[in-house]
Design brief:
Elements (H helix, E strand, L loop, with lengths): L8 E9 L1 H5 L4 H14 L3 E7 L6 E7 L2 H14 L2 E8 L2 H20 L1
Antiparallel strand pairs: 1-3, 1-4, 2-3
Length: 113
């Protein structure tokens, strides 16, 4: 993944069900389908989705074209009131390696000044 303007950006969403989400648990599959349609309409895609044990109820991995598209999606999901998401921008190993290389280059340049 690259942080070029044209490249999709990856996000991880950690979600907790709200009281409304718990009360309407039987509709979870339909809400997930609607979520994936909303993501696609914004030019993104849902890569994976997991129900998990622990502090969060679900983990979803997205690719979105921009932070603005992700914000629009998150605000819409929060307005619906079924989940309270925590959104984390994610870096794959290639992008992370590029960041480390740039830090090392900067460190070397600063040391020679």
């Amino acid at each position: 993944m690259s942080w070029d303007r044209g490249a999709p950006q990856r996000y991880i969403s950690l979600m907790r069900l709200t009281p409304k989400g718990l009360a309407e648990l039987a509709d979870s599959a339909g809400r997930r389908r609607i979520s994936e349609e909303r993501v696609a309409a914004l030019g993104g895609r849902s890569i994976d989705f997991y129900a998990v044990l622990g502090a969060y109820d679900f983990v979803q991995i997205f690719e979105m074209p921009s932070n603005e598209a992700m914000m629009q999606y998150v605000l819409t999901a929060r307005r619906d009131g079924h989940v309270d998401p925590l959104i984390l921008p994610a870096f794959d190993t290639q992008a992370y390696g590029g960041i480390i290389e740039r830090i090392q280059e900067t460190t070397i340049q600063e040391a020679t000044v």
